[in-house]
Design brief:
Blueprint lengths: L1 H16 L4 H13 L3 H14 L4 H13 L3 H13 L8 H15 L3 H16 L6 H18 L30
Helix pairs in contact: 1-2, 2-3, 2-4, 3-4, 4-5, 4-6, 5-6, 6-7, 6-8, 7-8
């Protein structure tokens, strides 16, 4: 916690001289989230998005906090903007935001929207090599199974073991971040 508090102090200093610094606001968001101060984190994420609405990472963390607090409509909007702000899929956030878009749609009761998003996220995850990908694939698979259990029209399709040859929809592509 000591290093986190030091980071918080540094970024607060930056904001004292540059009050609309999106990067400092985002770093405060992630630091406060890390130490469990979610209300503080949410406020700084909202600031980061307000100062730079095109930053997919800021949109991801805002959506992540909204999702954790079960504000699925807000989370869906944030994750959708996250993907839209990374049209080439070059940022690590594309996969993270895509599968959480699908889960948000599911929790909002829209299986018809959730299923293809989760399917595309799974295909995207299969083409990605980076730390933690197995956890992401497991989360996507659980989401697909939940859709299959809750929505009869997807019951027979709920297996996350899609053919390796299937391609994701053109709107969802990504490459892993450098060094991942």
């Amino acid at each position: 916690v000591n290093r986190d508090q030091e980071a918080i102090d540094v970024y607060n200093q930056i904001l004292s001289t540059q009050p609309r610094n999106a990067r400092a606001s985002l770093r405060l968001c992630t630091a406060y989230r890390k130490i469990g101060q979610f209300d503080q984190a949410l406020g700084y994420c909202e600031d980061a998005v307000r100062y730079d609405g095109n930053d997919p990472e800021a949109r991801f963390w805002l959506g992540f906090l909204q999702y954790q607090s079960r504000a699925f409509e807000s989370a869906l909007a944030s994750f959708t903007a996250c993907v839209a702000n990374d049209p080439g899929g070059q940022n690590w956030t594309t996969l993270e935001c895509t599968y959480r878009m699908g889960l948000s749609e599911f929790y909002l009761g829209d299986c018809d929207a959730a299923w293809p998003i989760l399917r595309d996220a799974l295909l995207l995850a299969r083409s990605t090599t980076r730390d933690g990908i197995d956890t992401i694939v497991a989360n996507i698979s659980q989401g697909m199974l939940a859709v299959g259990e809750s929505c009869p029209e997807y019951r027979g399709l709920a297996s996350p073991l899609l053919p390796e040859t299937e391609e994701p929809s053109p709107a969802v592509t990504a490459t892993p971040p450098p060094g991942a």
